[in-house]
Each structure stands twice: as structure tokens, then as C-alpha cells.
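@channel anyone free to eyeball this complex?
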Amino acid sequence: MSEIAVRCEGLVKTFSDTGALNGLSLDVVKGEILALIGPSGCGKTTLLRLITGVAKPDAGSIEVGGRVMVSPERFVPPEFRRVGMVFQNYALFPHLSVAANIAYGLHGADKDDQVAAMLQLVGLSGYADRMPNELSGGEQQRVALARAMGPRPDVLLLDEPFSNLDSGQRVHVRNEVRAILRMSGATAIFVTHHQEEALFMGDRIAVQHQGSIQQVGNPGDVFGNPATRFVATFMGETDFLPGEVTAEGVQTEIGLLQSTHPVNVGDQVEVAVRADDVRIAPDPTSGAIVLTREYRGMVNVYRVRLPSGRFIHSLQRHTVRIAPATPVRVLMDPGHELACFINSN
Amino acid sequence: MIFFFRNTSPVKVVLWFTGALVASLLLLPIGYLLLRASEAGDSIWSILFSYRTARILLKTVYLAVAVTLGSALVAVPIAWLTVRTDLPMRRLWAILTTLPLVVPSYVGAYLFISVLGPRGILQQWLEPLGVKELPKLYGFPGAFLVLTLLSYPYILTTTRAALMRMNPVLEEASRNLGDGPWGTFWRITLPQLRPGLAAGGLLVALYVLRDFGAVSFMRYSTFTRVLYIQYQSSFDRTGAAVLALVLILLTLLVLFIEIRTRGRANYYGGHVGAVGNPIQIKLGHWRWPSLFFCAGIVVLSLVLPASILAYWLFREINITMSYSSLWMSAWNSLFASGLASGLVLLASIPVAWLSVRKKGRFAILLERISYSAFALPGIVVALALVFFGANYANPIYQTVYLLLFGYLIMFLPQAVGALRTSFLQISPSIEQAARTLGKNPLMVFRTITVPVSWSGIAAGIGLVFLTVMKELPITLILGPLGFSTLATSVWSAVEEAMFGAAAAPALLLILLSSVPMASIILRESLN
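replying in thread with the prediction:
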């Protein structure tokens, strides 16, 4: 069993507006990058604030590096927690140089050497004497990372660290950050609301919704085998097709589909269908018809109306061109089993 | 391993304790006045609804409204001319028309009386021509003239800011839809200026309600003047307390409306994202009248007073001038202001910090109290502390400590405001970052909060220092016997109609207080 770096149990935090937690539990394994993803207002930032210690939960406990930080009897202030934090707006101290920012959390005689080592790690060796306002967004990001990692925290928290970068820088910087975290073997919780970013950054992904964790697992699992309808919606463009479970599979209006989820024969279910699993081909005899074509550069996304009046989306290579109003045959070609959920309606 | 149990941070305890202490200090004057007034029993109503009270109230409100309207008539054209038109030397006019703000009202009143008053310079010059009497200056005309000329910059600043924030695209759209320049001004520009105009106008009204110097010299009986006369002569404490409470209610009302309007003004300004430059209006043949207007206001509010001061100074030097008492007064002014601003700084830190960083009822209450104290006129603070000192704090009565205490109550709101603005500019995540890097709250405050906000704090406390120096009613009433400052020197000389003797302390006051204050204000408003 691998060592647990952070353990949150039954965290409750009540707010009048958004961001509340209701009984959230989460474990982070030492040395992993856990990507925490969820829509805004789901309480991601609240969770980070509880772990750093700038806010107190109403109930529940938090352990970091095997030490109890929060419990009904105990509350450790932020400065004693050994939890590093990279803020969304970087929060660099504007009156201190790059080197002084990094040195702020360090102690001991070899402070200067540690600062130099951190600067080298983040690739900013020549920047020691610059002031924060003289740096680009990506550079500020790396200084914030170096500053947070300097004191060798038990866990590093990153709160939407790439949201202030433009999309060009974003891909570049996130590659760098991932490499730096890997190189140093740090344990990290990475918060985002972009599914692509979560899939790229996380060794594991935790999906948070309405104040609790819906699913934790490796990226392939969470994407391919969503545990709840919410996870299926949030992690990809998903349509839901109603159907009935038979001995051979789930019978839907576009045919028999195979499902992984444990359901019983006779259950009414909804099958989660992603656009890349749906193929279409022109067929004058079909009752399904193409409504619109959305051109996205490398691919086309077709919106198709099924005979029942329901809509389904199909992702095709950009070379496949079908005009709107063309009747099409809808084929499922997933090459894997699909997730399905008991139909609550 | 160090573990901390809940709610034991000593820093927090000290913070809350200081905050509560400061709040009770601020409430002391009102509390004491309420106590005094309640001693009157039923006769309180006969004072409150007397013909005399109604007359004072009416005269006070009349002056406040008149000065506010007069200021708007002066300020709006100047604001528009200096922001939107091709008026020559726009920047120079913008700076010069902001300056009257820093001249103490009693200095302005003194200079105008010495020229336009009975047996003033003007009459002496005109006497050979057979002019026996000038139009009456004392009373409403004088008070209106001086207060308008000194307080219009409040409206000017807020209106200029509103004009600069305004999205020029809206005016372009109006022109595009077929409205001419005048139609656009009345239908688009002016309505958008309304919140800024209202905010500035309420500041002017507050200035008039709190003014003591100008109305006293001009012998116009508003609340502040009546309170002072009552203090000096009959010393009817209960009656004074009731009048003081009415004045406080009036200022609180104005302050309350001001807060409401300011919120709206920010809202209006919030959604601009101004793109492109506004249309610059060509004045054409209106250029000379416009220039004449700006120059006229600058002459009346700056050049004329300065020349009169120079005249008196020149005459006085040739006669006799007591340098030693002048230096003593200057020293006393600097000494009292220095101590007061230090004290105010210490007291304002916890209040400002709590109100910015802590949520919850007490923090909000604390902030409201400190902001409401802004409505306290100096004369009211002074009278409340005189009563209080004589009855309950005899050891510090008639000492410099009571004077400092008065300054503290009077100027704390201003300092809290300045500190709040500085603290608000620091993102909370910067302080949290410092906490996660292993520093306790006190160290974070010392190594991050103070250094980052230092320039704002210094400017705010600098302004308090300079404002204390020109403060009049508190210094006059609470100062120990024989403790003369530059402000009280001007006061006593003018009281005895020794206009020449007032010139030197007035000039020193302007050099030591108004000039540095102008440079701080200009640097902030022009950047």
C-alpha cells in the first residue's frame, strides 16, 4: 500500500452561497499529481483553503504527511502545516525581488544556495534580481512554483494555475510545470475546471460536484468509465440515449449497445454516448436527419435528429462532408463498452 | 511538533481589543452629548422645537444648499472645459483650480474681510471717490462667497473623474443618431455625470455643515457659530448639547446619502472599458470667454487672496512683528500635529486592518462607526470633550493630552479611510501565500502588508498631519491656556481686527500645511 500524503475525511463547510462542502473525503498518495476537477462553485477552492489552513471546516478532519492538521480537538495554523500553495493570481510579493520571494519561506545558512537551486529547477537562473512586475505571466508562474516548492512542503496545491495565461502559453507552461513536479517527485493537488488539462496533468483525477467527490481514478478510467451521470457529462460531450436492458445488451433506438455497468434485465437505463463513438452515413431510407454541421478545423461535429426527435452528435474527420437535411444512418462503433445509468425519469 | 488549539491567537485578541477601544472612543462625544441632553428632561423638546433652533437649522441648510449649487455652477463648466475641449493650457487650469481646496476657510474669510469688509482696503481706496459704504459682506454674502470659492474643487474633482471615466463611444453613438453637440451634452453627458456630481456636491455640503472658521468670521449664525458663542458666553450646556446633536443628525444624513450615491457612482463607472479617445470639442469663438471664466475663478480664489496676504505681510514687516511668538506658534503647531498623527496612525491600523480582512458583524460595525465619525464637526468634538474633561477627566482637562484626544477622534476616520484603501490594494492571497511559507500573522503584517502598502499609508498619515495643523475649533477650545498655534494666532488676530498681525501666521500655515498638502493631492489626482 502506498503512503498517503493527504487524507481528508468528512469535510463539511457551510456557506450561504456557492462553494460549500458536504462530507467530502479524499486521499492523495505520496508522489502523485492529483487533478481535482469540477465546475465553478463546486467547492474546489474551499477544499484548498481548508487544506492550507486559511479557513476552518465545520466538521471533518485533515491529515497532511501523517500529522493531524484539523480535527475536532485540533487546528494547526497555516504556517506550521508544510503545505505549499501556488495561487491563481500567483500572489508574488510585489516589493521583493524574484530571489527574495523564493527566499521568503526558507531558513538556514545555505539559503542562497537553495534559492539558486530552485531558480535552476524552474529555469530562471538569470532572473534573481528582477522584480515581479518585470516578468511575463509564464515567468511569474514559475517563480510562484519555485517559492511554494522551496521549503519542500509535504504537498503542493495549485489553484487553477494556468487560468491567467493565454492559450498559446498555456500548453507550453503546463508541460514545463508537469516536468518540474515530476523531476522533484513532489506530491501535488492540481485544481482546474478544464477536462483536457486535468487529463493531461493528473496521475489520477478526482471529479468534484456539489461539495463532494463523485469519482477518483486514473484518467482513462474516469473518462472511459464515468461513475455517475454528472461525471459522464462533465468529462466529455455526451448524449444520453434511453434504452431497456435485455439479455444481449441495452436496446436503444439506434440498436443494441454493450454496457459495463452492472444493471439487470428489464431496467430502464440511459446510455452515455460520446460523439467520437457515433458514425453516420447518408441513407435516403433512414428516419434520422442531419441538422447542422459545426466545423472545428480538424473535425466536423454533426448534430443529428433521431426519429424519436432526440438529438445525437457525431464527430467526423474534416474530409467527411454531409449537407444539412441529408437523411443518415446512425451506427455505433465504440470498440468499447459504454457507461449507462438507471433512468430516473 | 507544535499544535495550536482553537481561538488562542494572542494577536487576534489584541486586535479586537484595540478595535473595540477605538470604537468606544469614537462614540464618546455622541454618547456624552446624549447623556447631557437627556438631563434636560422634558425641556429638551422646547429647545428642539424652538423658533431659535428652527432659524439656525434653516440658515445652516440654506447656506449648505446655496454653496453646493454655487460650487456646481463654477465646477461643472471648468471640468468640462479642461477635460473635453481644446481650451489652451488645459492642464495648468486643471491644477490651479484644484488648489483652493487646501486653503483653510478662516484664512480665506480673513483675507476677503480685510479687503471687502467695512473699513477694508477697498473702501479706503474708494473713499476719496466719495464711496461711503460698500455692499454688506458680513452674513450670508461673505460666507457664501468664501465657502464657494474654497470648496468648489470637491465637485470639480469628482466631475472631472466622471468625465474621464465616461465611455466616449456613447457620445459618438448619440452624434451618430443625429443629436448635435448640445443635445448630446444635455441628453447623454450630463445624465452620466449625475452620480459624480452628486458625490462631489455632498462633500461640499458636508464641508459647509462642518465649517467653523468662515461662518464665524463672516458672522453668519450656523450651528457651529452658535455653539461656539454659547460655549463662550452663557455656557448653557444642555442647550448646546441639543443643538450639537441636531447638527450631528444633519451631517449624518448628508453622509448617509453620500455613501449611497458613491456606491452608485462606482457602479456607473464600473462598466466602461473605455476605448479610443473622446471627441475633443473645438471651442472656436467661445475660446476667449471660456479662458476668461477659468482665469476669473483662479484670480478670485487664488491670486487675489495671495496678493492680499502679500500686501498685509509687507505692511506688517515695516511696522513691528513679534518673531519669537510666531516661531513658538509654528513649533506648537508642528509638535501637536506630529504627536496627533502618530497617535492616529497607531489607532487606525487595527481598525483598518480588521475592516478589510475580517468579515462578521463586529468588523462591519467598527467600520461603520469609524466612517460615521467622519460626520462629526470639530466644534462638536471640542464641546463634548470640554464637558467631559471638566466633569470626568479633570487631570487632563486644559492639558495637551485632551487636545490630542480631540484630534484623535476628529482625524481617525480620515486615517482609517487612507489605510483601508492601501490595504485593499493587497490581494488576500499574498498574505495567505506568506502564511503557507511558514510566517505567523504578525510577521506577515511586518514583512508583507506594511512594506507593500507603505506609500499609501505614508501619504494618508501625511495628509492627517497637514490637516491637523490647520484645524481650528478643537485647537481653540481644547488647547491649554496660553498654547497658541498658527491657526489660533490667525484667529485671535482677526477677532481683534488686527489684519496685519494675522498675515505672518497665515503665510506660515500655508507654507507648512497647504503647499505640501497640495502637492500630495495633485500627485494622487493627476496620476
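from a first look: The two ends of chain B are 50 Å apart (CA to CA).
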